Amino acid sequence: MIDIHQAGEGPTKAENRNGAFLIRAEPYLQREEAGCSLGRMFQPCQVDNPQDPVTPVIEAHAGDKVRIHVFGASSEQNGMFTVEKHEWPIEPFLPGADMISTVEFSGSEGLDVFLPAAGGKWALAGDYVWSNGRLPYSQSGQWGYLRVLPNTDQRILPLEGGMSSSKQAALGEFNGEPRIIPTVAK
Fold it and tell me: Is the CB of residue 167 less than 8 Å from the CB of residue 125?
């Protein structure tokens, strides 16, 4: 469940309550009031005092596989989820599936985006904007950062070997091509 708050109400950052994230939005008008020009909307407003937006910052190491669950909380119109400079397979468990960089979702619809590598094709560290690709929604604050950290960065723990499940998805080979074997198929 995702609950998005406008400026001045609700939690100040992503806050986990009973498995649900309450997310605060950072609309363009709020950014303009903080000193951001339209050309710097997705960058720190003050160069000498950079601060993250109040929207969630997703963190991963360069090259990590990333799964983002997108949920259209409520809307009569469709949204378009996108991550800057990233592509993912339209069908994650189908070898050779077409790659896309934007996916449509509607109200009360949930979908999973499986990024093959944080940092895009070349696994480059940096901040990438995730957003609703429809301008009115991104203007209202539906955006944030995918922060890709260098592999040597210790702010977050690596995923490798960190899972304690007895049953995990695996990476196998099919005709020389890597493929993901879902947990349910084991």
Answer: no
Alpha carbon distance 37, 25 (integer Å): 18
pLDDT in tens, 21-52: 446 788 888 888 888 887 878 887 777 777 88
User: Which amino acid, one-letter code, is at 85?
Assistant: K
**Could you tell me the residue ranges of all domains in the chain?**
51-185
The whole-number pLDDT of residue 47 equals 73
- pLDDT band for 115, please (50, 70, 90 cuts): very high
Q: State the pTM of this model.
A: 0.72
The domain over range 51-185 is classified in CATH as 1.10.3090.10: no
What is the gyration radius of the CA atoms in the chain, in angstroms?
18
